[in-house]
């Protein structure tokens, strides 16, 4: 399947190339609740809210009272600002990526002067938020791969609030929308 090559998008008009049975779709009650909440936020606020406000509305529609924030230490100040806003309405548990940090040397993880000797610990972040009983987790700038580990281990539903892109000011889609950057994609050599 290569939806990126489709120019008609019949699925968006109710004529999908791969039909699904509405009787079997989203039978899991919790998944259906998430889909309905997402649909409500989308239909009420489409294009009117920034992602942060959409996440707040999503949590409200779900009836969430306890949010978790798993953040990168590099976005500490942004996590502080987010927490200041969110704590007015929600109970919060926040956990930094280096919490329970382990030495990279002990894990056979490469290190350098740029990144330091302590590994992030996304599995521990997820465990701490689970122990705290969070109902919805927000990810703020976890590194590529660390985010995958966090998502795999988080027991609560997780929404990416900030996706890290150090080079593009945490706006990774700029690499695709800016023709000057897009021309270079996939051509830069990895540096040792």
CATH topology of the largest domain: Rossmann fold
Rg over alpha carbons: 19 Å
Give a short account of the largest sheet: 4 strands, parallel
The tally of helices reads 8
Notes on the structure:
This is Metal-binding protein. InterPro entries: DUF1847 (IPR014997). Pfam families: DUF1847. The chain is α/β, with parallel strands linked by helices. The chain folds into two domains: 26-63, no CATH class; 66-162, Rossmann fold (3-Layer(aba) Sandwich), CATH 3.40.50. 37% of the residues lie in helices and 14% in strands. The protein contains eight helices and six strands; from the N terminus they run ααβαββαβαβαβαα. The strands form two sheets. The protein has a four-stranded parallel sheet, sandwiched between helices. Strands 3-4 form a two-stranded antiparallel sheet. Strand 1, helix 3 (76-86) and strand 2 form a beta-alpha-beta unit. Helix 1 packs across helix 2 and helix 5 packs parallel to helix 6 (146-153). The longest helix is centred in the N-terminal third of the chain and has 17 residues, at 29-45. The protein is globular, with a radius of gyration of 19 Å. The chain starts with 28 loop residues before the first helix and ends in a 10-residue tail after the last helix.
